Automatic annotation (TrEMBL), chain A:
The species this protein was found in: Psylliodes chrysocephalus
Protein family: Belongs to the archease family.
Keyword Calcium annotated: yes
Archease domain mapped to chain residues: 17-158
UniProt protein name: Archease domain-containing protein
GO biological process, one term: tRNA splicing, via endonucleolytic cleavage and ligation
Lineage top rank: taxon: Eukaryota
Any Gene Ontology CC annotation: tRNA-splicing ligase complex
UniProtKB/TrEMBL annotation, chain B:
Uppermost EC category: ligase
Job of this protein: Catalytic subunit of the tRNA-splicing ligase complex that acts by directly joining spliced tRNA halves to mature-sized tRNAs by incorporating the precursor-derived splice junction phosphate into the mature tRNA as a canonical 3',5'-phosphodiester. May act as an RNA ligase with broad substrate specificity, and may function toward other RNAs.
Taxonomic classification: Eukaryota, Metazoa, Ecdysozoa, Arthropoda, Hexapoda
Any Gene Ontology biological process: tRNA splicing, via endonucleolytic cleavage and ligation
Cofactor(s) the protein requires to work: Mn(2+)
Xref: SUPFAM superfamilies: Hypothetical protein PH1602 (SSF103365)
Record's keyword annotation contains Chaperone: no
Name the UniProt record assigns to this protein: RNA-splicing ligase RtcB homolog
Annotated binding of Mn(2+) 1, by residue: D120, C123, H228
Gene Ontology MF term list: GTP binding; metal ion binding; RNA ligase (ATP) activity; RNA ligase (GTP) activity
Subunit structure as annotated in this protein's UniProt entry: Catalytic component of the tRNA-splicing ligase complex.
Pfam families recorded: RtcB (PF01139)
Residue runs in coiled coils: none
The keyword Ligase is assigned to this record: yes
Organism: Psylliodes chrysocephalus
Amino acid sequence: MNEMFSQEELVLPQCKYEYLDHTADVQLHSWGDSLKEAFEQCGIAMFAYMTEIETVEIKESAEIEAIGHDIESLLFHFLDELLFLFSCEPYLICSKVTITEFMCEGEEFKIKCKCYGEEFTLGKHPQGTEVKAITYSAMQIVNEPDKNRFELFVIIDI
Amino acid sequence: MVVRQYAQELEYLERLTPHSWRIKKGFQPNMNVEGIFYVNQTLEKLMFDELRNACRPGMVGGFLPGVKQIANVAALPGIVGKSVGLPDVHSGYGFAIGNMAAFDIDNPDSIVSPGGVGFDINCGVRLLRTNLMLEDVLPVKEQLAQSLFDHIPVGVGSKGIIPMNAKDLEEALEMGMDWSLREGYIWAEDKEHCEEYGRMLNADPSKVSLRAKKRGLPQLGTLGAGNHYAEIQVVEEIFDKWAASKMGIEEQGQICVMIHSGSRGFGHQVATDALVQMEKAMKRDNIETNDRQLACARISSQEGQDYLKSMAAAANFAWVNRSSMTFLSRQAFAKKFGMAPDDLDMHVIYDVSHNIAKVEEHIVDGKPKTLLVHRKGSTRAFPPHHPLIPVDYQLTGQPVLIGGTMGTCSYVLTGTEQGMLETFGSTCHGAGRALSRAKSRRNLDYTEVLRKMEYMGISIRVASPKLVMEEAPESYKNVTDVVNTCHAAGISKKAIKLRPIAVIKG
């Protein structure tokens, strides 16, 4: 049984990410009009490395929660949760992630996020590259609201 | 990171022999011991280029060159001997890939570092022999490649076909290849030809997070993606006839099967979990390192012990994984040739780990010591007569399997006494990347790479087209350079060269 989604939920976001060079692995670079958007884009960037993201339809959704002790660890755990969603039940590959709660200041660093996509299916979704793990290596978070600059750099181990 | 000019940096590096360089103390802060790395002329150039690039003014972000990482490892508490860079060394996270370091267990300050093992715990290589010859296989090469590809689940998102539930997984984590044997997937003698006999006894599945188990369960018995592969290979050259015959390799043209895989999502999650735990332990115990990536904990601490027990469980997972694929390969061959795997003489020659930490006895400054040896992208290479190698190889030394990359040769080496003294019985593990994945994809052409493979007589089955460029031989250091350096430096000895005729990849 497919879930029902509103029109708004089915609209895919613009692509605001790219892949940068790293000897053994790949660096995700994402940006947006807010730090929240940069986070969402970073999540999509990771999924888009695992398959051709255009082939992913929105048929089901899942909610995740990530907690960190600083902004870097929040990003780390956010991506780790997304990777986990893909790696076992429900094997969800996502073409859209919407952060519904974003706390990135003060004592608490927390994200609640709704992830839209479908079960990864061989034959339907071309196999891209497997992501082994998220790393802190050369992680950079640009958070400059006065300049409207929000960017993330994360190396994923592949 | 110390900021110096390239010329100043070079003052800390000194050539020791035609194949090795010394890294003097002071190259990085707080070095407890010196570093050493093994290279030949070609590889030397790659190493120094990497360093020169990092010294360019205005370099921001990016990553540390391999030599710097070797030196940072030399600054870790409790390290003994030297921090060793093998010829295939390249930049990794914290530790370089192709880096080994040993820590004195009796020193209370000594540490264990998940970075010194890597995300893919007990990633390794297994070699099976057959009694088939090239001419037996050539006529059915394509079908055989397809059959292997159909038998072994490969690539991102593939699931294992060996039936498994949560209880089976618990047992497999604890028992390693004893589980595979009990379930009838392997032969009793397979265990004999495996490091640790395919089972680390200190494995404790209760120390492993539920998360890791959930990731691991569907992936047991899958090859994975990236640089992992299953290959049908043919013996191209025999350097050491006697050692080769001990391994059941009699002549050129004999067919072998090589499997390169690790602990899949299970090991990746164990490593990720440990890194998070160790960050806390470092703060609590005031452990200072030169690089935040070198997360570690004292061996004697709760975090250190928990990691070693869960790492052992991941190592067992990897052995069961390679064993399951051994089973599938034997099935594929048996079906194709209408003969039992037994009659095809499909024995395991050996199985090595190249991402692991182990407790071993070594001589340091003339005294026997118990050490925790980290090998990241480095293979154990024990000399003849070592008590931990199987009786079949007591006289030849441990077989060391060096996997090439897609389309290039692989090697079997044997361990030497000199390697035991110089590198704690360790040698290289493979080719080591030279180009970044993105660069490979930009510079290389898909059809071009495939045509080259065809020209070389290699059947290829790859799940992900992107991977074809990323894993092309041009993206890697030349494995022959790497192996020749190990041979010339005396840290291991060439026995057999193998050439691929069919490649199965994620």
